[in-house]
Amino acid sequence: MFSKVCLLFLSASSALGADYFVSPSGSNSAVGSKTAPWRTVQHAANSLKPGDTTFVLSGHYNEKVQIPVGIKIEKSRT
Fold this sequence. Notes:
With 78 residues, the protein is mainly beta. The chain has one helix at 41-47, and strands at 4-11, 19-22, 53-57, 71-75. Strand 2 (19-22), helix 1 and strand 3 form a beta-alpha-beta unit.
């Protein structure tokens, strides 16, 4: 089972949003759910809307990520 890594992305808005997941075994054509996660952190960063959270599951991510304006990175509280 995957465990949550210390990163999550939060938009600047305080509105309640959706939870999305990224996993090295995922696919960017998936829906981003826990059972059908996205493959890349960049795809998640590009897909967020105000209030959304992305959980980056454990694994190796060999990518450079450009964080769009308005996205904040925080450590997971779990």
